[in-house]
Structures are given as C-alpha cells and as structure tokens.
Amino acid sequence: MYGLVHRALQCFSQDTYGDVVWNKVVAEAGVQVHEYEAMLFYPDHHLDDVLLALSNHLDKTPAQVSEDVGAYLVTHQRMEAVRRLLRFGGTTFEEFVLSLDELHDRVKLALPELDLPELEVEAHSGSSFSVLVKSERHRFGAVLLGMLRAMADDFGTLVMLDLGMSTLGSDDVERATIELFETDFATGRGFGLVAEERSR
After folding, report:
1. CATH code for 91-182?
2. How far apart are the C-alpha atoms of 76 and 72, rounded to whole Å?
C-alpha cells in the first residue's frame, strides 16, 4: 500500500498524542518503520498492526480511531491541502456530498498508484444521502465518517451521520448515511480559491 496512507496515520498520532506515543505504538505493533515516506510502498499489514496498537493504547476501537483520523485530515493545519481538495467539491455541504462520486478520479489524476476506495453517492432526497464505500478494506468507511463530520462543521451544517453495511451485487460494502437538518446551523470556516499565504 502507498505510504501516503501510513503517513496519514503516523501524522495523526504524532500531532494528536506526541512522538512518545507514536514510538510506543510502533514498538507494540512490531514494525521496523518509525517514519513512513508518502511515495514509497509498505505492506498492508503495517497499517492494520499500527492501527490496532494505537487503538489499544488509546483504549478505543479501530473504527473510533479511524473516524478520528478522518476528522484530523480535514481539521489539522498540516492537512490543509486535503481540506482544500474537498472544499473544491462545492459551495455547500450538499454539493460537496454529491461531488464525492468524483473524488476517486480526482485523486487518481495526482496519484495514480494510490488505491483509495471508490465512492458512490445515492441521493434519496434533497436532505438525505448515502455513500457506498467500494473497498476490500472495511475501515475506510469510518475514515469517511470522520471526514464528513468535520466537513459538516466546516460548512456550518447540522447533520446526522451513521455507518453500516450494505450489499452491492455479491459484495458487502460500507454505507455512510447522511441526514441534513440545517444548512446554516453555524458559521462555517472561510474558504477561498487561493490559499491564504502563511505569515513568515
């Protein structure tokens, strides 16, 4: 698997809990890599082993930690590029959700080797949606849930989110359900087409 995914878990752990925790987690996971390089490939089990070790250390389930990672990818300053990529999906939370169909292809243009799940959006009404997560790995749904929760806050939208399983053909896939209650519930974060220049 592309190291970009491993790197995201590493950055989440270090930025949220510090280097000491990350080093303990890596040791408990029994992997020999302390610094993941985004553009290198690593065994899939590294991600599973480190996530499980981090979950045990935090006394959380892997799904809870995965959801926290999803929120981190949107809210942390280090990950501003991810937030901007998502915000280009629309000017409202509803438009953003509908644009998730295209996210896989947009990422592939920049990183063709990155194996992210495909997302299929189903609009049940103007305020009710489902997102199917097409992936062999069943933890991306929790990451998506965290991202959706953070993006709803980003837009100032009040939503209810849930994650379950659904059948697609002969496959079981994760399904995130989204119910919009109030689009102007709070003041969202500012966003412009040109990234703000950081103070030097």
Report:
1. 3.90.1520.10
2. 5
